[in-house]
Amino acid sequence: MLSLRDVTAIPEYGLAPQGPDPAIAADREVHRALILSGSQWMGPDISQALIVSDAGELQAVDRLLGALAVGRAAALVLADFPGGDAVTWIRDAATRHRFPLLTSTRPLSAWRSGLARRVADLAADRARRHAATLGDLIAQLDTADPVGGVTRALAQALRAEVVLRGPEGIVTATPPTAPLTLASVMQRPDRPLQTTPTGLFAGTVPVGADHVLIVATDEPLGRADRNLTGHAATTLAFALAPHHREADTASVTTAVRGIRLSAFQLLMTGNATHAQRVLAGIAPGLLDVETTRVFIVDCARADREAVMADVERRLDRNALAVRCPAFHQHIIIVAPQHPEHDSEGELRSLRQTFGSSGVTVGGSPVHPLAGIGQAYGEAADALARAAHHPERTVISATRTPTLVDVLPAVPAHTWAEAFLRPILATSRSGSQILESTALAVEFRTSAAARVIGVHRNTVARRVNQVCAAVGLDPDRTLDRIILSLAIQIVSSLPQPPAPPAPHSPEADVSLHDVLTHQQVRIWADQMLRPLADDRRDLVRTLRTWVLAEFNADAAAAHLGIATKTVRSHIRAAEPLLRRDLITGLPQDRDEEDDDQRLSGLRPLTIALYATTAPGAPYPALTHRPRGGS
Amino acid sequence: MNRSALPRLHGAAFSESPEDAYASLRAAGPVAWAEIAPGVRALVVTDHAAARELLTGADFARSPEHWTPLPDVVATTHLALLRPGGLQHVDGPEHERLRGVLDDCLAGVDLHAVRRGVQRHGRALVGGFAPRGHADLMAEYADQVAGHAVADVLGCPDDHDRIRAYARSVVDAGPDSVEAAGKLMRRLREIVREKQGSPGADLTSRLLAHPARLGPGEVELLLSSMVLLGIAPTAAWIGTALHALLTEPAYAGEFVGGAVTIRGAMDAALAARCPVANASVHYARRPAILHGVVVAPGVPVLVGHAAVGTDPARPGRGRPRDRSHLAWSAGPHHCPAQALAATVAEAAIETVVDALWDLSTPTRVITGRPGPFQQCPVHLGVVFAPDRRDGVTGADGGGADGVVDTSAVTHATGANAGSAYAGGADTRTDEKGVTTGHAVSA
Description:
The complex is a heterodimer. In chain A, β12 and β13 form a beta hairpin. In chain A, α10 packs antiparallel against α11 (272-280). The longest helix of chain A is centred in the first third of the chain and has 32 residues, at 108-139. Chain A has 27 helices and 16 strands. By secondary structure, chain A is α+β, with helices and mostly antiparallel strands. Chain A has five domains: 4-125, 3-Layer(aba) Sandwich (Udp-n-acetylmuramoylalanyl-d-glutamate--2,6- Diaminopimelate Ligase, Chain: A, domain 1), CATH 3.40.1390.20; 143-240, 2-Layer Sandwich (Beta-Lactamase); 254-395, Alpha-Beta Plaits (2-Layer Sandwich); 403-509, no CATH class; 515-610, no CATH class. In chain A, strands 11, 12, 13, 14, 15 and 16 form a six-stranded mixed beta sheet that branches. Chain B is of the alpha+beta class. Chain B contains 16 helices and nine strands. Chain B has helices spanning 12-16, 18-27, 48-56, 71-76, 92-107, 111-129, 138-154, 160-172, 177-197, 203-209, 216-228, 231-247, 249-257, 262-272, 305-309, 338-355; strands at residues 31-37, 40-45, 60-61, 134-136, 279-284, 288-290, 293-295, 300-303, 381-383. In chain B, the strands form three sheets. A five-stranded mixed beta sheet of chain B has the order 1-2-8-5-3. In chain B, a hairpin with a 2-residue loop joins β1 and β2. Chains A and B meet through α3 of A and β4 and α9 of B.
């Protein structure tokens, strides 16, 4: 929702439009900026991008502009133009192609080192604010005076004068003097664009059959603002309808759906406050809670829309249900904990309607609102188990004691904080970064990206940055295990009341100390005990497999048995441990593989670590294998 | 010798204008000191006669066991390409035996099938970006085609992406080169094991089945040479020759008229911009004299294939049928896969030029890729008229087998079509031919 006009107005970029027609061009949407030079190519996807280059480096400009237009780039920017006057032949070419051309007083090096990235940040920020404003408009429907509320909200968002006129005259106006300023416009409500005697730009939008909305601003409205005005008109039509609650229109439904998804994605990325604000409009108070649970419904053979309708009917306004943007058969439900509403019971009874279609439900235990990322992970785990469950429903009512619960709180926290210090200390949004990293390490990067609504390159970069900051290899499974463990500890174990003094012996805790703690050993023994029921020595195979960094071939060679046998032992262990192990392995850049989850490997590795016999080698969690750099 | 004054064969300045460094090396003599990585010095031969003497003589060894770098240098440099492994680092009778097997087996590669495979991959790749009207022909085409071609020859078509990425990291001599070299060797080991279990009609299986009965380790060593010295140089050759065809004023007119063949441009590229820039590392077994320069044992002596190609004193330079460049190296370690590389490069260039007839490059000067070992454009961004047809031919188009008629490369640009992908207009030499060569020395 960032337009070329908006970017041009920011002095930092030193931009000046050169043609063809600034007024038309100014409305184009800008999502990012890409560099085009002898050392950098713009890349395959150029849509909504500013292409920044140096006039001295360019040739074949005619053909280039043609390609930029086909790729729906936003504009070509010529860097380092002190006077802001483009080379004539480039400007002529831009005019021929009717493609926006700008000059920038800033050099290409400045764009490369930060300006380009800031364009993308700005665009993301605008999109979020736009969503929030849409939410505000729709929020007015629940107030005592929806018509006045929408008009006021629109006037405030656009800094505009707004009049709503009906067949019997003016319905409402903001500010109250607006009808005077806009008198001339109201004479001719059939003209969509007019200027007032005082020089305002006025637009008229029909509302329903017999109303008209008039909006006047200092500058002509950009695309995002027109979009907002259009939504306001739809909302007003809805509010003016005799029984507006029943007069459901498709566009309002779509808007509400979009807002719910944004709110969910904001929650997943740790922006709980933003999410509350966005959702305040359509579901006031829904997220004003401390704790929540997350459920995932796998619709299997049932139609997702049908299941969704039933879920919404059952949960009414007590939960936030969204269609999963990554997995097309999933519905994700964020169910805040209200004493008088039983979301769990309602979801359990989904099976009565859709039982024959293989619908399964997984639910997380109660989490604080800020920990939804983790709750989602646990719900996904539960969903995986639900497929093997007779009830087809697994809801972890209370947290079964997982590894994180049995870790000695103070040493574990001390270790994890120290380990993640490079991230927690340097970045203002350190904990948010960890939240999305945790998700990406746990699931495939691309699925995680879709769920939280961030581009997958961004997620991948974040994971790489985090790994680099703490000195881990993002491709190594054991390293991913360490990282996810540290993040879990920091985000779900309560902060110790009195952290040890910085240089005391207690402050110097290693992961080895944490993992060989008495409590962890007891937990590990319990976890591995079911394996004893098998007459084969599964523990030995698993241990060798983990020591070989999950390479079945290497494990087989070491044990002197066939690779096939190693795999069959691992598969035999899966039901006994109730965990997926083989499907949890990251396949080398294989995006098609559906489920790549650490959730099974992590506890197994740590349990084996904790139960390592004296003198035997430990899994290489706390040290690098020989030869590693 | 003042270390800071040594010409640098790494870093941004070298990537931008390698000829500057080569000019200083030439000025310092036929064999001169250069810095090939931060803190790593080596002798580099830039003189044609000296290079021939080194490559064909028996006084110097190829095995890196003769290298005696400072201990901290070994730990910190990313010159995985200098480390042991690969036929290019083997000497004497051992080399003769392995090279014989490799030559036998490479002779069995069906070059017609290779050509058809490259055309098929090439058309599919072009189909991916043709509707878009712009592409990076290095990353989206040349690298991919070369990776596919080598993977197909080795019999591991599904591995093309990873082995290409590993080879790229090693040749770039970046921070991950040592790790990539390790991953490549592990993967090659798996491939050899798979082929032992189920042989196919591929180079790997033929190497394993050769009567000389090579061990799996020896086959892995040969495969690593094929990957490391096969993929990146071939890709660079494709990219550089394409760049020359698109930007050299000499080609712009004549290519359309048929006076210049693709093969002619490819040969010119080998001399003017040899893809393997500095390689063929030798070590003196005992103190030796090379063209009047004393070489102490333990010092790497590199052949500057790129600098030799542009050596003004090189006999035959600039003549038609110029073959005295050492892009393919010379002596016992000369490239064993010349015909294969030329087949791949020629078919790749023909395919893309035929499919997208109005290519032009929107950036005047293109920087080179990093490190001392290669000479290759960092990208080859092109624009062209988008292909609006729905299904752009992926597999069996017309002319699947025959030589494709590539008769039209035109320039969309009128204003000064510059050339030379590295080095601005002021650093350009008087040469016409830009491009590449391919010096695999194994």
